[in-house]
Amino acid sequence: MTAKHTPPDGLVIVDKPSGFTSHDVVAKMRGIARTRRVGHAGTLDPMATGVLVLGVEKATKLLGHLALTEKEYLGTVRLGQTTITDDAEGEITASTDASKVRREDIDAGVAKLTGDIMQVPSKVSAIKIDGVRSYKRAREGEEFDIPARPVTVSSFAVHDVRDAVAEDGTPVLDLVVSVVCSSGTYIRALARDLGADLGVGGHLTALRRTRVGPYKLDAARTLDQLQQELTMLPLAEAADAAFPRWDVDDRRARLLVNGVRLEMPDAYAGAGAVAVFGPEGRFLALVEHQRGKAKSLAVFG
Asked: What is the dihedral of CA 266, 269, 275, 277, to 10 degrees?
């Protein structure tokens, strides 16, 4: 009789290939890890590459909290053309000569899109409007508006401006940019809004996510590499890297795991999700400070 395969719990940091949806990557990982219990923290558009954080088994309970962390990107914005999707995947809807756009105007436009801003997500996105995905409404030719949402762009830098000629002969500018932003920020919407502000239109032609919270590209593995060797960050290490840490003694560890709401130090007030560790570094739970008590978010111990 063969022993039952028990997949380990942990996070897998994938370097997502272009052309794959986040769901495609999850489906691949289910085969590699030999379990159905796989999820992802925050989607990446099919065109985009880079860091996609997956959770396997118990680590899936971390994902909703990890999805809220800061993200970092490298990308290319093309000024001079707009597309229906705000990126290179969609058909071009307008072309304008962008060769006369000045660097100081680009920098001024970028400055307007930095900090706490209100952003209208792309219409071809996964946001739900009255329970229906925005991209589904767009595909069916429906006229609709997406309300602007608050997002934070901590950093939006232009590293290079390159003259180029689009396939239809339009002189365009390609900007190599980096962005650090809050969860829920659309980089293609930044490209669209920058182009609109400069009067020539814009869209995103390349995007690579280089960081999700504490997890960076240097820790990521391609699907081929993971097929050869499943590299996983153990649950305790993953939680310690991503959340503030609270160590408790054996007695409080037992109480916590049995559902008792422990008194929690005020130092954690407003910290969001906090990882609780018991003796010998055992990861017990994610909690948050609520009126002096630890409100349980997810129990692992």
From this structure: 0
CA dihedral 8, 12, 18, 21 (to 10 degrees): 60
Check the CA dihedral 153-157-163-164 and report its sign: negative
d(CA 98, CA 96): 6
Same domain for 95 and 191, yes or no, is yes
Confidence (pTM): 0.89
As given in the structure block, the two tokens for residue 90 are 């969609």
Domain that holds residue 127: 71-212
Which two tokens mark 126? Answer: 């996964």
197 is catalytic: no
The catalytic position among 9, 15, 45, 174 is 45
What do you get for the CA distance between the two ends of the chain, in Å? 31
Is residue 97, in this structure, part of any structural domain at all?
A: yes
Do 196 and 97 share a structural domain?
A: yes
pLDDT in tens, the chain (301 residues): 444 567 788 999 999 999 999 999 999 999 999 999 999 988 898 999 999 999 999 999 999 888 778 999 999 999 999 999 999 998 999 999 999 999 999 999 999 999 999 999 887 666 666 666 666 666 666 666 788 999 999 999 999 999 999 999 999 999 999 999 998 899 999 999 999 999 999 999 999 999 999 999 999 999 999 999 999 999 999 999 999 999 999 999 999 988 899 999 999 999 999 999 999 899 999 999 999 999 999 998 7
- Compute the distance between CA of residue 50 and CA of residue 62 in angstroms, rounded to an integer: 20
Indicate if 206 and 226 belong to the same structural domain.
Answer: no
Report the DSSP beta bridge partners of residue 155: 180
Q: 283-290 and 293-299: which strand pairing?
A: antiparallel
Asked if residue 88 and residue 51 are part of one domain, the reply reads no
232 CB contacts (<8 Å, ≥6 apart)?
A: 8, 10, 11, 12, 56
CA–CA separation, 86 and 141 (whole Å)? 16
